[in-house]
Structure formats: structure tokens, C-alpha cells
């Protein structure tokens, strides 16, 4: 379970200007993620910075320090997700695109390494994105964070005027090494764009021998480990 906080100040995701008048006059304020106000999807660019933060790897929970920039497009109704990410860990820069299809529990990861395009189909090792894990806590006070996968405390901050996402704060817990990460959202839209769920042509072909050599080097976007759904 992950905590969602209704932020005490309004935030315009396109320009990042704080609109205090909405808070002072209680204009358009609402409780987010309740039964009458369920989010069906969203799209947004994001910027994430991590200092020894937890992330999910095939071998289990690992830690890494990095910066990551990307784009998220999620449909909670259909369980579809698209993520483009550019990750820099100080040693290497890794770019990839990820498509998730909850209906058949399949994901596709595509990118280019050393001039070779690739796309690999993989079974989902995690649940498709779902908004049901979000729980309202408070308008202005931080509640006791809930535990995510027994490794991180994750808190989501939203703009109470329209329930748009502002940022996600994650802190390592439960005997994992100390670390944390912060994800900020920009250019937020409260609906998903279905055009991003179309796979590129490279994903319809069987990987050749050169592409298969890259399989062990493929990385998933780190932001997946910090999403609260």
C-alpha cells in the first residue's frame, strides 16, 4: 500500500508556478483517488534523482545512484503502460522504451546499443499498473508512510485542485542500505494517449544473433521501482 498526499499548495505542472489563491480561497479543492474521483490514466514527463535508492532487479532489490529523465503514459483501465527513459549512472547512459500490456501479462523493451536496434518480449514479473493501491492520508500533514514491497517508503504528492501528480518521494527501509530518491512530474495530463501503445516494427521480428547478444545488457526504467501503483 502506498500513501497519496493531497498537497497543501496548488501547482501548475506545465509552468511550475504555485497558485496560492486556490488554497487561500479553497477553490476547486477535492479529495483525490476516492470512489467518485478515480483516475483512469495519465501522461507526464518526469525527472528522477536517486542517491543509493532501491530499485527492482531480476535478482531482487538493488541500490543505485543515478539521474533519469523520461516520459510516462499509463492507462489504468486497460492495464497498459508506455515508458521512455534516459538513465545516467555516472558511468554509462542508457536509453530504452518499455510497453506493458496487462491483458496478456507481457512487456516489450526496445532500444539501441552500439548501433544495434533491439526489442525483446518478456513475461511481466510485476502487476500491471493499478490506481487501487493509492490511499488518501491528509491535506497538509505527513502521515506514517506505508511500506512498498518491504523495501521502500513511498509518498505521492498531488495538486488538490485537480489531483495531478507533483512528485514522489521514496526512502529505503527494512534493513536495506540507506538511500532515497525523488521523482518530479512535468507537463501532466490526466488521460493516457493510446497512440503510445503501438509497438514499433522491430518488435514484430524475431531477434537475430546480434540482437540476442544484447539481452543481458537490457535495463528497465528505474522509475518503475518508485511508482506508487
Short description:
With 229 residues, the protein is mostly beta strands. It has helices at residues 20-25, 209-212; strands at residues 2-7, 10-11, 18-19, 41-57, 60-75, 80-88, 93-101, 106-113, 116-123, 134-136, 147-148, 152-159, 164-172, 180-189. The strands form two sheets. Strands 1, 4, 5, 6, 7, 8, 9, 10, 11, 12, 13 and 14 form a twelve-stranded mixed sheet that branches. Strands 2-3 form a two-stranded antiparallel sheet.
Key attributes of the depicted protein:
disordered N terminus, 2 helices, two-stranded antiparallel sheet, single chain, mainly beta, 12-stranded mixed β-sheet
Describe it for me?
The structure is a single chain. With 229 residues, the protein is mostly beta strands. It contains 2 helices and 14 strands; from the N terminus they run E-E-E-H-E-E-E-E-E-E-E-E-E-E-E-H. Strands 1, 4, 5, 6, 7, 8, 9, 10, 11, 12, 13 and 14 form a 12-stranded mixed sheet that branches. It has a two-stranded antiparallel ribbon with strand order 2-3. Strand 4 (41-57) and strand 5 form a beta hairpin. It starts with a strand and ends in a 17-residue tail after the last helix.
